[in-house]
């Protein structure tokens, strides 16, 4: 049975609309064009030698610049001086040229033109003739006479093509052609400059304006190539953001929204202060909406902050379209309310606003309000919108249970727009309305009209399905049934034919009484059926077996059908379902062969998409990813339905995912998720969302992965894992609060799950990262209460010890580290845990408890990375318990491999051990080694002071004084220096 889905309000008759259609500026100039002309204006008002795009001058009050009166006086003085000059007949050529140039430099173009002309006429061979020729062209350009300027530039370039000024003149000539709308000449001129110039700035300018010329010629690939040349070869040029905006516009014109998105995102990421940033956001929203990425589109539109009414209107209209596509009807109404205040009453934008608002009302089932708005648009002067609105008035009336009034509206549409975009669907809806009203004969006549007027279209196929529905629902007799049959009889021969028992079997199958259907099919086969009936019976038998999970019986029936009726009408459907049966039996190669036989026939109609989807599934299960991708792409290219589209996109994404091409997989999962979420209660949504989140996470796009993982964590087979990955992504983003909350929620939702202990541990990690040690301790203790084994148990105990250490709770930390040592997976890990247990005891001077911990660490890994620290800890224990000789020996052993602060402290402790033995001179030497060998160590000042003390104890006063003085000089701000000053005062008053 083919089920037809009722129309959903779209609010418009086209998939996307260019920004320029709704946001125009005076003179029919689009905003993107206006930015181009702003650049052009700046170029034409520059002096030779100045940058092509000078920064905007600051606004200074007249008084700060000498005042308006002063400028007027200066101009008057210039003119007065001109009036007093004698005739230039006797002036030498240089003076004549200098005079003309002086006029030009003062922007007195109308006065400079005749002087340059006279000079060139009198001295055509003069060395300054080239400069005069180019400056004459500049004068025409400066006065806005583009025709004369172009002619002058052409003449100068012909006469002096090698002059250094030719490069800039070429650019100016191209700009003149742009002004004159001679776009082919402009493009040729900029191309010529690109081929001849060696000046990076000139090349950048030429590439940009070549793009502008090609864009205005609607040669979008050529324009885009020019813009891309600019951004690739001059990435720091000031035109680059304009070029990216234009690349986006070109891509949109070419119908490639993905490329437009890529270009426009560059602007948002790299040029947040770009003057056209809001236009970029609008265009980005349009491109995202064209791809059906409605949420992202609305975010882009929402970022528009300009007060420009036209641009604001474009953003709000785009947002309304995206919200309608996403079925967020309240958001549509909010957006259209603002659109109404920004658009003029009779404008196209106002009509679109009303159409969108009507669509929202329709979606909310507020039919009277929707009808009022649709009828208002239907009366507008915008034909395409009026037709669309008239169609939706019919749909609204039908939804409101008024089928005859709906028929009147559809009939009015066909009268007014007989070949319009909605004509076929209007005829189809007339049939639906008759069917709603219980008039199957009239409905069949209307559907037949669709078949005759619109053959071989999707609408025609819907009409055929509707006729089949009418026949299935028809009663045993009555005038209505007779009329229906008469109408069906007018269809082409062979469209409806079947044996009575086969029809009865079909009815049983349709009623989901599969055993009865199978029995009837077998009865047909036991008799002497016609070939057509036999084929249908075999097919029904296979389908009934498939529905009752008798996949082997289905394989037998379908195989028999294919052998006995190789050219039958049901061969393709049988091949499809044979492949399904093999899939149910996990016979993947056989399933792939059946599906391949089907796709090799190049099936058309409703079976085409399932055929490719089945092949994609079978190939995927068999690990034949290239074939799976090819089949899925063919399914997508075959006009699939919404559910089939999701299946095809899933197959594509899974192929990339299985090959660990996560970048491609993420893009494909995103498309699949968008389509799946548009379906009501699709069970695929959580699964696809999880795989999308996984792929994005593998690409380290942690932020982008979060929405997908949140969706997957709500329900479905991957909910626990999705919650786990979601928490990890927050951790990767250093959002420790969110990460901790997600890990704790995971443990709470799945207390017996595989991640419970790890989740609590990881929640603790988030608090630990923020140095919230008591909170971390609580989570680690809860994790430890789960009694995890193996490395996780070790990690939890270690981190609990660390958190207690920093709290500080040294006895608690020591106990945790001791537990970690017992759980350690290897000797190095046992050494580390034992060391920290000893260090924790040492913090509270529990030397006797610390000593066995350090000894265990040394025994576990005598040459490991902590060996020096371990020996240092043992040395301190020995010193504390009065075992000075053993401490000195152990310090010597530790110094063999120690470095940095550990070596400095070991050296210090050796000195203390010697001093404790009364070996004061030797102790002084060891103390001085600390200061000399490790001068930047925190122990250096203390050790040098202790060296002085040791010399005092050895009765070597002179050496003690020298050591103290050196200490004060080297570490004047240290506490040890203060102590040294006190000793000096006592020793050398």
What can you see in these coordinates?
The protein is mostly helical. It has a two-stranded antiparallel ribbon. The longest helix is centred in the first third of the chain and has 18 residues, at 67-84. The radius of gyration is 43 Å and the shape is flat.
Spatial strand sequence of the major β-sheet: 1-2
Shape: flat
Could you say which structural class the secondary elements and strand pairing correspond to?
A: mainly alpha
Gyration radius over CA: 43 Å
- The number of distinct helices, counting runs of at least 4 residues, comes to 52
Instruction: Indicate the low-confidence ranges by residue numbers.
Output: 1-90, 492-500
Number of strands: 2
Give the fraction of residues assigned to helices: over 70%
Strand percentage, roughly?
under 5%
Distance between the termini: 113 Å
